[in-house]
Amino acid sequence: MGALSRACFLSCLRVPALAKPKPKPTNNPKLKLLGFNNLTKSLSFNIYDICYARSKEHQQEYLEYIDEAYNAERLTAILTEVANIIGANILNIARQDYDPQGASVTMLISEGHHDGLPTPKKDSVVSHLDKSHITVHTYPETHPDNGISTFRADIDVSTCGKISPLKALNYLIKSFESDIVVLDYRVRGFTRNVRGMKHFIDHNVDSIQSFISADIKNRYQMIDVNVYQEFIFHTKMRLKELDLDTYLFGEGASELPPREARKIRENVNHEIMEIYYGNNIQR
């Protein structure tokens, strides 16, 4: 049942006049588990930065700029801060820059603490690391004819246990300052309490938007597609304002004839709309 349908349903419920509503708990009580919390929480980003570089020289300069600004060293620093924010221990880092451009970084992580439980031995750590990792891959590219250049970064933060990747949501969005952000969050598996009852989620989630800061929300238009019963949450974001100067590489909007500036603006907006909606749009 969608959020709107649930709201309508709840608003139609009648409460007896003498009935007193139960007070809502101020915080979530700790769940007493039978063993290790093995719920898998995965947050995936597709982040896009759009640019217009008119000449071949500017297109090449844009690729070189992106390659330097988001090389493996810089990406490692971003992911290290993500691990700090979510409270994870970094166990291993693998990173690689590519020729002609692009970079990849993969981190294996574990929970920062185990609530008094013995520290897992090496073999048991390795056994659950397939669900505890942070990765980023970059894909810079340019269109050879129309001047549009696009930088995409794919980021996955997957944790196993109590730590949640949603804590790093705002930091990651701000780290890339992108035109379009596509977010997917999913909780998989189950954990048991001491009585053997399964818990398929251990935190309240209605929408990814609930974890996005107000200043970011003010800058982006957002749409949701959520499957509540499957614990699948999807949010797409695009900047509300299109300031042409922020999309031009190597020149400013004031340097262009008005007709050309208008045409470039249309091309940039068309590129953004196609990526945002995931369709080729006929003009």
Offer a quick outline of the entry.
The protein is of the alpha+beta class and 283 residues long. The chain contains 7 helices and 10 strands.
Low-confidence stretches: 1-28, 113-131
Give me the number of helical elements.
7
Query: What class, by secondary structure content?
Result: alpha+beta
Largest sheet: 8 strands, antiparallel
Tell me the distance between the termini.
Answer: 36 Å
Q: Estimate percent helicity.
A: 25-40%
Give the total of domains. 1
Strand order, sheet with most strands: 2-3-4-5-1-6-10-9
- Which fold name fills CATH's third level, the topology? S-adenosylmethionine decarboxylase
Envelope shape:
globular
Based on the coordinates given, report the CATH architecture: 4-Layer Sandwich
Instruction: Kindly provide the radius of gyration, computed on alpha-carbon positions and rounded to a whole number of angstroms.
Output: 23 Å
Approximate strand percentage: 25-35%
Number of strands: 10
Could you spell the SSE succession in H and E letters? Answer: HEHHEEHEEHEEEHEEH
What's the CATH class, please?
Answer: Alpha Beta
Give a written overview of the molecule.
- There is one protein chain.
- This protein is an alpha+beta fold.
- It has a single domain (33-277), classed as S-adenosylmethionine decarboxylase (4-Layer Sandwich).
- Helix content is 28%, strand content 30%.
- It contains 7 helices and 10 strands.
- The strands form 2 sheets. It has an 8-stranded antiparallel sheet with strand order 2-3-4-5-1-6-10-9. A two-stranded antiparallel sheet has the order 7-8.
- Strand 2 and strand 3 (103-111) form a beta hairpin.
- The chain is globular.
- The relative contact order is 0.18.
- The model is unreliable at 1-28 and 113-131 (pLDDT under 50).
